[in-house]
Design brief:
By secondary structure, the chain is of the alpha+beta class. The protein has a 5-stranded antiparallel sheet with strand order 2-1-5-4-3, sandwiched between helices. The radius of gyration is 14 Å and the shape is globular. The protein starts with 6 loop residues before the first helix and ends with a helix.
Length: about 140
């Protein structure tokens, strides 16, 4: 009988796969690898700041994401505060932007590439899906971009 991998093992495998991808395809590799590795995730992608809006970049999702979006949602607030936002129940977040009605929890990890603000945005169809392990590994993943 095979043991079910824990979250840390899954992230470790993802990081190895991402690190083996070509530099020019890192964002695509991250969104695809992570999305394919976690069963409750319904969106994994990147938004980047241009002027006063956020535009979709590389992503993998069950539905087409909203783009552009404003800074009132989780992604925008994460960039404004420059901190990871882990939202256990998106319905309780003021200003949440509903792109997929199946989204129940969300985590956003802001970072910069050169002078451009980005955010790694992940939505789950499960309430309270993200924890300290997600925060730690996702921060590590975007830190090296």
């Amino acid at each position: 009988m095979q043991l079910i991998e824990n979250k840390e093992e899954i992230y470790t495998k993802c990081i190895k796969s991402i690190n083996n991808s070509p530099s020019k395809d890192k964002l695509k590799a991250i969104s695809t690898t992570l999305f394919d590795s976690f069963e409750n995730w319904i969106f994994c992608g990147f938004y980047f700041k241009k002027d006063n809006q956020l535009f979709i970049g590389d992503y993998k999702a069950l539905k087409i994401p909203c783009s552009p979006i404003n800074f009132e949602g989780v992604c925008g607030i994460a960039i404004k505060k420059n901190e990871i936002l882990n939202i256990p129940d998106v319905k309780k977040f003021p200003g949440h932007i509903i792109c997929d009605p199946n989204s129940k929890s969300e985590i956003c990890v802001p970072f910069k590439i050169h002078s451009t603000n980005f955010v790694l945005d992940i939505d789950s169809n499960k309430l309270d899906n993200f924890d300290e392990i997600d925060c730690r590994f996702l921060a590590k993943i975007v830190k090296n971009l």
